[in-house]
Design brief:
3 domains, 74% helix
Length: 539
Amino acid sequence: MGPDLPSLTYPACGALIGIYAWGRFNTPPTNRSSTRQALYWWSAAGYVLSALGLFVVLSVLLNAGPWRNLLLGENNDASLPAPLIATLALTTLLPSTPMLKRLDEWFLSVFLDWAEIPAEVKRRAAAMLPSSFLVSREDVDRLREAFGDDYGDHLVRHFRERRGEGLELSQYRLTRVAKLFDCVHKLGGEPRYARFFAEAEAELGELDRKAGEFLRRSANSLTLADRLHELSDQTGYDEVVEERREIFARDCREMFIALARFLAHAVLRSEASEKEIVLRLRAIGFVTTESISLPQFPIHSLTALALGVFVYLILAVPFFSALMEMPRQQASEVAIAAKVTSVRLLTVAVTVWLVQRYAFFRRGPGEPPRFFAYAVNGAAAAVVSAVICFVVHLGDVSPFESLYRHDRPMVLLTFLLCTTIALCCDDWTDDRAPPFWWRVAEAAGCAAVMGAGILMVVHYMPDALPFPPGSLRGRKLALLIAMPSGLGAVLGGLVPHIYRCARHAASARRDEANRSFVGNPIPVVVAEAGAAGSTAAHA
């Protein structure tokens, strides 16, 4: 028997949607070289998954007769399968469907923001200051050899490794630009940079043209200035060339910035890790480049917290069952403790991971709270909790029905708790540790949110609770509120503190890494260290 054609339509259309979404995320091609590789791949995968999710939702709606008539109107053709219509709407016909286009653009902007595109490359380029760029005696000798054949002696004789005043300062500025230009070209000969230079061939050609014109024009200007200096008295010379020096300094700075921006794209596209990016930039000559040490995921602290929560539930569930007058089943109590522990800690782990890795979920100093980002974080955690509960019910006759009947409260409480924890992780932006009462307030806030969530469950989802309707009054209702609220207080008091400890540890590692780079530089920088002191003092 041949394959069922409708069953092949969904994976085929899904593949087309994935390819189209991947191309959208990578448009323009500079997106690929505008952020760190890990951020790019995670965010690209997230955008592709969101496009596939939109495809599934649209296909389900188009399979329903009323929705199909509403969406297609007079253009409804019953012979066209729903996944094909959804694929056309999300690809070739996307510009002509305003609502889907706006939704797709929103998803794209969110994931580009998560990937820090183009903020990352802008930040890298902005940190590549001419004042932090080192030029050594060995660099000058190498530059004279490299540029002598193409530009002649009237250029290379202006190269110098030390900053001076007047004409010497202009010569030093020219040397920095020439060295950076030479370093950029040398990267093109390395295998790991070959793909980037092939992709950026047109941009590199334009940069070569501008840099070449700049070097020739600069050589002529400095040679003329040198001759005027020899023929004129010092006072008259300074008055004549002062304005020219300012223009030349501006031109040098603009050329240096253009080269630094191209270099930033190159290292982000070609270097695999933050450490390799820093080593490369320091080897080139940016000796003050700092390492961006991301906070390590606090797996050890969260594991200890998970064990504590499991022990708490093992002890509390029998007590809770007795007070609620529920029949005791020891195996069931252990399963409940394991399930609740898994859901609570895995969803909290997802919350912490998202806040750590993506700037979208955290604010900078002085910025207002990002409430929408916290809600998105909570929604992601709720999806994870639903997946965990679904896996638990795989042995049931209808896992989806069991998930809906028994675990709606779990998913709702996960959303509320993780949204609040995401807010608490982001409510203190100072480098110093918050006062102890701050942690108490965070614990009380999470407890209050969990209590309010339980009241919502009792009011709106009584059929999902394992208690007879109308039996939750007085002591039983108070106990039902107290148990999850206590767990929320524990998580609210500890998880934001664990997150902040990981952030402070990352800051300490970054400072230590920067000290180690200075104290134990890589071989290329060792040769330049002799000039570092004088350069840093004058730049």
